[in-house]
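Give me C-alpha cells for this 71-residue protein.
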Amino acid sequence: MIDYLALAIGHGLLVLGLLRLVLRAELDRDPLLEELDQSARTKRMEATRRRGKAARTASAAENADSKAEAR
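Here you go.
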C-alpha cells in the first residue's frame, strides 16, 4: 500500500510541475523572435518610405517634362 502511495505522490508532483511549466505565459513568447519581427517591420517601413519618395520624385520629374513640352 505504501509503495502505491509513494508512486502516486511522486507522479502527482511530476504532473503538477509539468502543468505549471506548460501554463506559464513566458513560454509563449520568444524575445529573439520579437526582436527579429521588429527589425523586419522597421526595414519594411523604410523600404515603403523610399519607394514613396522615389514615386513622388518620378512624378515630379514627369510633370516638369510635361510642362517643358507644353511650352
